[in-house]
UniProtKB/TrEMBL annotation:
InterPro entries: EF-G-like_DII, IF2_II, P-loop_NTPase, Small_GTP-bd, T_Tr_GTP-bd_dom, TF_IF2_bacterial-like, TIF_IF2, TIF_IF2_dom3. NCBIfam families: small_GTP. It comes from Heterocephalus glaber (Naked mole rat). This is Translation initiation factor IF-2, mitochondrial. It comes from the Eukaryota. Monomer.
Length: 728
């Protein structure tokens, strides 16, 4: 500031000196006038003499005023000088923040963020409000907003306290009391597992199963004549229910492996052995259908040796009992073998304290809401208990046994139905008792938060992978265009854009018609799980895409129909559920297919049929007749010479309206239609076997040779079946 003041003072002094020199020059001129003649302009001369003095006074005043202003400015604080300049808003951001969080931090709406990212490499169509943004795009948005960013570590460093519910430590052995064994019956489909259990329970469960096969996990408490109690879990044997069998093995103490004596070891038998081995659970072998003439129990035992299941007869530790579910033979011996093994295992549990258990199955009942079948593993469950399972919680309103009878308490190893859930938990979820409803909500909130954090980590990994892909693509593009002139570069980019033109409406319809949108509704969570597991094996997307748009438990409702309608060709599959007449009529009006099934493999066959219907048909040629060329000649038609073949029909008949092909040395050299077909001199439409004829083709350039074959055929469209094999 002092330098500027000195410059100004020097400038003013220079200006003042110039004016003084000018005044001296004016005085010299006036002196010359006085010597020559008297001038009446004495006043004007006086004014001229006054100019330098007035200029000095004026410049001095201006200089002093400027010094005063500069001094005052130097005394002011620096902030007051910047008050007129608008400061940039500072936005606090962090790594991995979402679109919604960025918009909130900037005090803008989400659409503004989308607009800021329009002309960038970000795929706007796939960007959601909860999508995570890369660091580059966060900076880009802040820059376009004219704001200043500030990186915050608070979001990264902030760790939420773990508020989850966990199992209690192991109880004091002195507090443990004996409990009933939990026994899972496993084996191949149709080997008599449910019939065997029926005989023990003296019920007819198998008769009520659709198609005679078990499609759910059944939990039953069986009381033996000796007073002992056994909890049986009956798992499905069908290939579709692998997850259910695995879940049954995880909550059991003993596995009863049922193998039909007339059928031997099958695929699901081997799978059941593996599930038992993974869960480290001992096996009792029940060789069923021993009443049949073709039964061979010894063959079954030998086949099991290949899978390290060694029976006591062969020096192993696996008890083998020959039974017949039909006649009831040796059923008590099987029960006694199970009880003996349970005594060796010394099964005990703690009946006191908060309840611990496992959800075996879950479903939605119209009158009672979400219902679960559970096995209690620790503690005693009572009405009013607060439970959490997965991301759902319950205040127990009602409990009932496998016969639907209300019970007041459920002790360890007891299967029980529980009513009072706020949402439907998943089969296999761990059940834990908590002190209060507020504690239950806290646990659920924590689990949802934890799930969200895991999802965020996965999203960040995907973002990083996408970023690497974009950078690699950008690098390759630079290498590709780096040596080209701008005109060549522009032309190549134009050709690339032309290839990536948007689909026309007709092309879009054809593409979309090759996608099957499916909604799955099941009676219980395990059934839906089994269907989804089968759909996960779909490997024919190159033929037709299979897209699962929604799934759930419960009857088909109006929301399902409306959802399917949005996809034009959506199909709703219901497994062991109902669709009211009103719902079916509504679906018919909206063009939505509802397909109900009670047997899982029928549902999968139907799904395969729907996929096959979306595939284009293949055209097959079906021969109608064959003729051999005996002679060739030409017929003059005006100025044209038309080649004609003299033929004899060897097989079938030749029909003029059908299609023909000319075969030479086993290869088709022409396909098309005939222009003429004559017998002697008469035009004819059909030539039968052993008759001779003359014919000409619609292609004049084709020349016949003796020995050629003329084949008459018709084309038929043949439906194509999907190549997807679900494995059963």
């Amino acid at each position: 500031m002092n330098q500027k003041l000195l410059k100004l003072e020097n400038l003013l002094r220079f200006h003042m000196i110039s004016r003084q020199l000018h005044s001296l020059d004016q005085r010299r001129m006036l002196a010359q006038w006085r010597h020559g003649f008297l001038s009446p302009s004495a006043v004007w001369a006086a004014q001229l003499y006054a100019w330098p003095w007035q200029t000095d006074v004026f410049l001095g005043a201006a200089l002093s005023q400027y010094r005063l202003l500069v001094t005052e400015k130097e005394k002011r604080p620096w902030k007051s000088q910047l008050s007129s300049t608008k400061s940039k808003k500072e936005v606090e951001v962090w790594i991995g923040m979402t679109v919604e969080e960025l918009a909130r931090a900037m005090e803008r709406d989400i659409d503004w963020v989308y607009e800021a990212l329009l002309n960038t490499a970000v795929d706007i169509d796939s960007l959601e409000a909860d999508s995570h943004l890369d660091e580059v795009w966060i900076k880009e948005v802040i820059k376009k907003a004219g704001m200043k960013l500030k990186w915050s570590k608070l979001k990264q460093d902030k760790v939420r306290e773990n508020r989850d519910a966990v199992r209690r430590p192991q109880a004091d052995p002195a507090l443990l009391t004996p409990r009933s064994p939990v026994v899972t019956i496993m084996g191949h489909v149709d080997h008599g597992k449910t019939s065997l259990l029926d005989k023990l329970r003296k019920t007819q469960v198998a008769a009520m199963e659709a198609g005679g096969i078990t499609q759910h996990i059944g939990a039953f408490l069986v009381s033996l004549p000796s007073g002992e109690k056994i909890t049986f879990l009956d798992t499905p044997g069908h290939a579709a229910f692998s997850a259910m069998r695995a879940r049954g093995a995880q909550v059991t103490d003993i596995v009863v492996l049922v193998v039909a004596a007339d059928d031997g070891v099958m695929k699901q038998t081997v799978e059941s052995i593996q599930h038992a081995r993974d869960a480290q659970v001992p096996i009792v072998l029940a060789i069923n259908k021993c009443d049949k003439a073709e039964a061979d129990p010894e063959k079954v035992k030998k086949e099991l040796l290949a899978y390290d299941v060694v029976c006591e007869d062969y020096g192993g530790d696996v008890q083998a009992v020959h039974v017949s579910a039909l006649t009831g033979e040796n059923l008590m011996a099987l029960a006694e073998a199970t009880i003996a093994l349970a005594e060796m295992l010394e099964l005990k549990a703690d009946p006191s304290g908060p309840v611990e258990g496992t959800v075996i199955e879950s479903f939605t009942d119209k009158g009672r809401g979400p219902v679960t079948t559970a096995i209690i593993q620790r503690g005693t469950l009572r009405k009013g208990s607060i439970l959490v399972a997965g991301k759902s919680w319950a205040k127990v309103r009602l409990m009932f046994d496998e016969n639907g009878k209300t019970v007041s308490e459920a002790y360890p190893s007891m299967p029980v139905g529980i009513i009072g859930w706020k949402d439907l938990p998943s089969a296999g979820d761990e059940i834990l008792e908590v002190k209060s409803e507020s504690r239950a909500r806290e646990v659920i909130d924590w689990r949802k938060y934890k799930e969200e954090q895991e999802k965020n980590k996965e999203d960040l990994k995907i973002i990083e992978e996408k970023q690497k892909e974009h950078k690699e693509a950008h690098r390759k593009a630079r290498e590709k265009y780096g040596t080209l002139l701008w005109k060549e570069r522009s032309f190549i980019k134009y050709l690339e854009r032309k290839e990536q033109r948007p689909l026309r409406p007709k092309e879009k319809v054809e593409r979309d018609s090759n996608v099957l949108h499916v909604i799955i509704k099941g009676d219980v969570d395990g059934s839906v799980e089994a269907i989804l597991d089968i759909m996960d094996t779909y490997d024919a997307s190159h033929e037709c895409e299979l897209e699962l748009v929604h799934f759930g438990v419960g009857d088909i409702n109006e929301n399902d129909v409306n959802f399917a309608e949005t996809f034009d060709d959506g199909v709703i599959y219901g497994f062991n559920v109902n669709a009211s007449n009103v719902i079916q009529q509504s679906a018919a009006k909206k063009g939505v297919k509802i397909k109900l099934h009670k047997i899982i493999y029928r549902l999968i066959e139907d799904l395969q049929g729907e996929l096959s219907n979306r595939l284009p048909c293949t055209v097959e040629e079906h021969p109608v007749g064959e003729a051999s060329v005996l002679a060739t000649f030409y017929v003059t038609d005006g100025k044209k010479k038309i080649p004609v073949a003299g033929c004899r029909v060897q097989k079938g008949q030749l029909e003029r309206q059908k299609k023909f092909k000319l075969m030479r040395n086993g290869h088709a050299i022409w396909k098309g239609s005939l222009t003429s077909l004559k017998h002697h001199k008469d035009d004819i439409s059909v030539i039968k076997t052993r008759m001779e004829c003359g014919l000409s083709l619609d292609e004049e350039k084709i020349e016949f040779k003796v020995g050629d074959e003329i084949v008459c055929y018709e084309e038929k469209e043949v439906p194509v079946k999907t190549s997807w094999d679900p494995g059963f």
